[in-house]
Fold:
Amino acid sequence: MDRLSLVLVIIGALNWLLIALFQFDLVASLFGGQEAFLSRIVYGLVGLAGIWCITLLFREREKRTT
Structure:
C-alpha cells in the first residue's frame, strides 16, 4: 500500500509540475477534462494517497542489519 500511495503521489506531483510550467493538466487531458468522472476518480485517489503518505512521516524506521 505504501508503494502504491507513493506512486500516486508522484503522479500527482508531476501533474502539478506540468500545470505550473506549461498550464497543461495531463490527467484532465487523458480522461476528458477536470469535471469528467474518471478525472475526478484519479484526483481523489491521488488525494487519498497523499493522506496515506502522511502516515509515513510518523512511522518508526526499521533498523536493518546487513
Observations:
- The chain has a mean pLDDT of 93.
